[in-house]
Amino acid sequence: MKLEFVGPVSVLTNGDVSYPAILDGKPFKCSFSYEALQDLDPEGIEKNVLQLFKAHQLKLLSIAEQKILNGHAVDGAVHLFSHDLILD
């Protein structure tokens, strides 16, 4: 399995964040719920969802990759929610 995160990051109409990837040579969609991004900033300091994503991009993409490797991709996409986060 070959996975490449290609971006760019964008905000969806529902407030979630999308980050395109290529999985085994085919387009693949990764999305991150607005709630999951908010959970990464419990103090509520950062209000801009794109800035939240960028501040935690490596962690988020790593979690997305693990979900894909664990077989949680559906119809060419993986979705990350609050319960997927492993907060330190």
Automatic annotation (TrEMBL):
Pfam families: DUF1488
InterPro entries membership: DUF1488 (IPR009962), Shew3726-like_sf (IPR036692)
SUPFAM superfamilies linked to this entry: Shew3726-like
The protein, known as: Uncharacterized protein
